[in-house]
Amino acid sequence: MAFQGAAPGFTNHNATRWRIPFPIARALALHCVASMLLQLVYPLARALLGRRTRTFCASRHSAAMSTLLIQQPGYAWLRELGLREDNLGVFNGTWAGRGEIVTSYCPSNNEPIARVKQASLEDYEETVQKAKEAWKIWADIPAPKRGEIVRQIGDALRKKLKVLGNLVSLEMGKISIEGVGEVQEYIDICDYAVGLSRMFGGPMLPSERSGHALIEQWNPLGLVGIITAFNFPVAVYGWNNALALVCGNCCLWKGAPTTPLTSVAVTQIIAKVLEDNKLPGAICSLTCAGADVGAAMSKDERLDLLSFTGSTNVGNQVAVDIQKRFGRKLLELGGNNAIIVFDDADLNMVVPSVLFAAVGTAGQRCTTTRRLLLHESVHDEVVTRLTKAYKQIRVGDPLESNTLYGPLHTKQSVDMYLAAVGQAKQQGGNVVCGGKVINRPGNYVEPTIVTGLAHNAAIVHTETFAPILYVLKFKSEEEAFAWNNEVKQGLSSSIFTKDVGRMFRWMGPKGSDCGIVNVNIPTSGAEIGGAFGGEKHTGGGRESGSDAWKHYMRRSTCTINYSKELPLAQGIKFE
């Protein structure tokens, strides 16, 4: 097999959430699919496009004495982002940190990159107080002028696009084009939010009473907490941050504990924009921290909205904590996404699409395709072609331009991958491709295809954040639609067909129950213009485009009497 130490590899992009569905930018998705198509058509060309992910984990100060990558000449570019050997992980107008020191590790070789001093609960308390004070200034700034600040943030990110994208690749593990694409997505949502700053608001409604007007007024919430995951350490924060800012809110960000350098670098870029405009830095605050601060955020009534991106299990506890205080929440949780391939599908589109969605980012997107439902008439052909494509995947360093597939994020992820493969075998699955750890430094595993499982097998209904694809065989449209909907999550879904009627049935009330419903494209690759999110155990939240901005504001119905009369309800009159 081609999955040995020096063998070539594959990885992919998306926003998904973080968002791809993150989704990454549409252009990046098109680039990936086009490249894979070329590789299928021309076997002598480069192996199918995908994405690679580096894993990096945080550890205790016991690893602090190791030689750091940032000290090596080849990684001097990290200093362009203001990073040093030791970094402070709290920002509320000034940089601080009184908590644990963690070391960021590169997942492709498990070497330490740099260290970050996290927030203590005391740091968190101080940061919340400063952010609430900063809101008093920020909320008074007209929305279009807030949009101008967001425009400047987008421009500042553009200037650091390449180097910040490389940091994402180094710390999270994505290939460089994907890391750059993720930063570009933050830039794109800034551009989107700038326009939105002159457009959002409510209507004036007709009143049934003469001389009266009804106005729907939208106002900022106040302080928005944002907790993001490792797989999209820039884009998902950007989706929330840009919209929250133009809506008049301050932001308090807790990034993933395993990607603190990215959180620090992004915040430094934003802080400079705020400073240049003589605005309080606490408008965009940061607390690099662990579960203690995350739990505090979910229970803190001073956070007017908490946007949480992460696992369904943790999201469930977050939801309970927020509900106990009757708070607002925006949850972007897991996805057990399916592609359904009918007998009339164009298989030349199917194979690269499945490969792109199942193996990209080493299967660590929330929109990753985990289930492939094949009509019985095309099952064997698709499995054969897909297996051949998998064996062309190249493995390598995410920062090298020819790398297309990389490692899982942590060693623990490798253990979960192996456990899932073992369970699939025990439950009747046949591993036709992959299933093993790749013999090389880092957290690399083989992209895996499993056939022969029942549609309701326990492992099929379990989201494993790894490149494992479960292939199922169906007989009818009704059966396929039912299987798509029978899992607990409801994030992304897709069918491949030429039947126009089937397309509309799929999008209709008896079709897919997911938040993202695609036709003839993969489950990943969402665009910022559409609302991103899912149903059921995915959390029900919506981020990015469409009317997602409404999550970040409160609505009031205002009645104005401009007449000289006072008509009362039910025609009551006081003499």
From TrEMBL:
<dbReference type="InterPro" id="IPR015590">
    <property type="entry name" value="Aldehyde_DH_dom"/>
</dbReference>
<keyword id="KW-0520">NAD</keyword>
<feature type="domain" description="Aldehyde dehydrogenase">
    <location>
        <begin position="101"/>
        <end position="556"/>
    </location>
</feature>
<dbReference type="GO" id="GO:0005739">
    <property type="term" value="C:mitochondrion"/>
</dbReference>
<comment type="similarity">
    <text>Belongs to the aldehyde dehydrogenase family.</text>
</comment>
<dbReference type="Pfam" id="PF00171">
    <property type="entry name" value="Aldedh"/>
</dbReference>
<dbReference type="InterPro" id="IPR029510">
    <property type="entry name" value="Ald_DH_CS_GLU"/>
</dbReference>
<comment type="function">
    <text>Multifunctional enzyme mediating important protective effects. Metabolizes betaine aldehyde to betaine, an important cellular osmolyte and methyl donor. Protects cells from oxidative stress by metabolizing a number of lipid peroxidation-derived aldehydes. Involved in lysine catabolism.</text>
</comment>
<dbReference type="InterPro" id="IPR044638">
    <property type="entry name" value="ALDH7A1-like"/>
</dbReference>
<keyword id="KW-0963">Cytoplasm</keyword>
<keyword id="KW-0809">Transit peptide</keyword>
<comment type="subunit">
    <text>Homotetramer.</text>
</comment>
<comment type="pathway">
    <text>Amine and polyamine biosynthesis; betaine biosynthesis via choline pathway; betaine from betaine aldehyde: step 1/1.</text>
</comment>
<keyword id="KW-0560">Oxidoreductase</keyword>
<dbReference type="InterPro" id="IPR016163">
    <property type="entry name" value="Ald_DH_C"/>
</dbReference>
<dbReference type="GO" id="GO:0008802">
    <property type="term" value="F:betaine-aldehyde dehydrogenase (NAD+) activity"/>
</dbReference>
<feature type="active site">
    <location>
        <position position="332"/>
    </location>
</feature>
<dbReference type="GO" id="GO:0005634">
    <property type="term" value="C:nucleus"/>
</dbReference>
<keyword id="KW-0496">Mitochondrion</keyword>
<keyword id="KW-0539">Nucleus</keyword>
<dbReference type="InterPro" id="IPR016161">
    <property type="entry name" value="Ald_DH/histidinol_DH"/>
</dbReference>
<keyword id="KW-0007">Acetylation</keyword>
<protein>
    <recommendedName>
        <fullName>Alpha-aminoadipic semialdehyde dehydrogenase</fullName>
        <ecNumber>1.2.1.3</ecNumber>
        <ecNumber>1.2.1.31</ecNumber>
        <ecNumber>1.2.1.8</ecNumber>
    </recommendedName>
</protein>
<dbReference type="GO" id="GO:0005829">
    <property type="term" value="C:cytosol"/>
</dbReference>
<dbReference type="InterPro" id="IPR016162">
    <property type="entry name" value="Ald_DH_N"/>
</dbReference>
<dbReference type="GO" id="GO:0004043">
    <property type="term" value="F:L-aminoadipate-semialdehyde dehydrogenase [NAD(P)+] activity"/>
</dbReference>
